[in-house]
Amino acid sequence: MPKDANGHLVPGVVGAPPRVPASIARPEYVGRTGPSQHVGGDVYDADAIERIRAAGRIAADALEAVGAAVRPGITTDELDRIGHAHLVERQAYPSTLGYRGYPRSSCTSVNEVICHGIPDDTVLAEGEIVNVDITAYVDGVHGDTNRTFRVGAVAPEVDDLVDRTQEALRRAIAVVRPGRRVNVIGRSIESYAARFGYGVVRDFTGHGVGTSFHSGLVIPHHDADEHTTEIVPGMVFTIEPMLTLGTADHDMWADGWTAVTRDRSVTAQFEHTIAVTADGADILTLPTTTT
Predict the structure, then answer these.
(1) Helix and strand numbers, DSSP H then E, in the chain
(2) Residue 3 CA to chain centroid, in angstroms?
């Protein structure tokens, strides 16, 4: 896999963008430099939430298929191919493909890559981790999810990081209640991560999602007093904590997408799209195998 003399990732070779059948509806931003401004707010009615759930389930099922293929020796490009095939077979468009020029159908972020890693000819090795982020667009809405997968057996501190990042997401979802402010979500994540001395990434956040891929609503993963949007029933957004074994600061690769920890420490991430209910949160990105 592409690495420098210090064993850190370097960009690989990115293949041609995958094809999507013409019969599958595209988001409005495909073929343009950027998306239109979001309209309509972040609160959805029951019918729209069920459409977002349907999109989220397709994304979650694609993520399951990708996760089942994660192993030493596979390339991130092949993982992207698997996820892409799953989406288009179900008449869903991969939301990342063509979003602000992004060239692939998923994000594959390995080891020190915080987020937005572009699938390429990077070969995964035993002991690494890879975060895979997949969003499906179908019936006019997006469903967004990601998970971090272990590549074979990993070091104990990395194993713990993965488990605890997933637990941070669970705890963050559990504090969602109408009448609270969105910063309660980040407060929950940061207080939990502090127990273990983890870095909590601030520069990349959760977001409103639904008819737009990113609505403009910010969901912080740290204790952020400035983010005071009130949580209300019917609101739909993602929560996607990114925790690191070192610094929360990042460097950006020349591709303008790949964000890596400044100290090149390992980082993990998990994400769900949720809808706010009268007394909590409903996860919209569960796979069909979940009972």
Answers:
(1) 4, 15
(2) 24
What one-character DSSP code corresponds to residue 93?
A: E
Annotate 94-162 with DSSP letters as a single string: ETTTTGGG--SSSEEEETTEEE-PPP-SPBP-TT-EEEEEEEEEETTEEEEEEEEEE-SS--HHHHHHH
From first to last of its 291 residues, the chain has per-residue pLDDT tens of 478 888 889 999 999 999 999 999 999 999 999 999 999 999 999 999 999 999 999 999 999 999 999 999 999 999 999 999 999 999 999 999 999 999 999 999 999 999 999 999 999 999 999 999 999 999 999 999 999 999 999 999 999 999 999 999 999 999 999 999 999 999 999 999 999 999 999 999 999 999 999 999 999 999 999 999 999 999 999 999 999 999 999 999 999 999 999 999 999 999 999 999 999 999 999 999 764
Residues 6+ apart with CB under 8 A from 230: 179, 180, 181, 182
Q: Which among 239, 36, 17, 56 has a CA at the least distance from the CA of 138?
A: 56
User: What is the pTM for the complete model shown?
Assistant: 0.96
Alpha helix stretches (DSSP H) within the chain: 46-69, 76-89, 156-174, 183-194
- CA–CA dist 152, 100 (Å, integer): 34
Asked if 194 contacts 214 with a C-beta cutoff of 8 angstroms, the reply is no
CB neighbour class for 289 (10 Å; exposed up to 12, middle 13-18, buried from 19):
exposed
Size of the chain in residues:
291
Residues forming a β-bridge with 123: 75
